[in-house]
Amino acid sequence: MVRLFIYTAEANGKEEPAKSILTQQLLLMQKKLWYIITWPSAIGTVIFGGWMLIKNTALLYQPWMWLKLIFVTILILYHLQCHVFYKQQSVGIFKTGSFKLRLFNELATVLLVAIVFLVIVKSSSGLVWGMLGLFAFAGLLMAGVYIYRKQRKAINETKQTTEPENREADQNTGVQ
Fold it and tell me: What are the angstrom distances between the C-alpha of 59 and each of 2, 107, 123, 127, 147?
């Protein structure tokens, strides 16, 4: 979903007619994904997760389960923030740029890796190493986003410097 927010924010920066065509299509895709897949999945996860805890209360005595529930709560808050982004973009408000949205996109990856890791490891000593690994994983993801940003900026700068030269050469040779 956040990928669509990124693409819509970037489309909003384009010139017409591309801006309106892309934005209209991306907003339609957001609406379908949000209401047909994302919200039903979130509601199902909360219902079935709660049901599992009611049926097996022994899980609540495990320290890893409480840590997992903390991460799931953060993921629910993440989902609610996505809803804020969805509502803003659906009315044409683009407060958050594509770079911040890219960082926000990676947060879900980190949370999901943490949740799955906690279910697999389930031991206290493994949790310490797991959290260290999680922070290293998050650091690598953030570094990847920064590297992508720098490469993209360099490509855009190269395009901007070569476009005037190409137009000038085309005018001198009579190419339209």
Answer: 32, 26, 13, 16, 41
- The domain limits of the chain are 2-173
This prediction has a pTM of 0.72
Q: What is the pLDDT of residues 37-62, one digit of tens each?
A: 999 999 999 999 999 999 999 989 98
Which residues, other chains included, contact 127 with Cβ-Cβ below 8 Å and sequence gap of 6+?
A: 63, 64, 67, 118, 121
Amino acid symbol at 154: A
Q: How many residues does the chain have?
A: 176
CA distances for 118 relative to 64, 95, 98, 111, 124, angstroms: 6, 35, 31, 11, 10
- For residue 36, the 8-state DSSP code is I
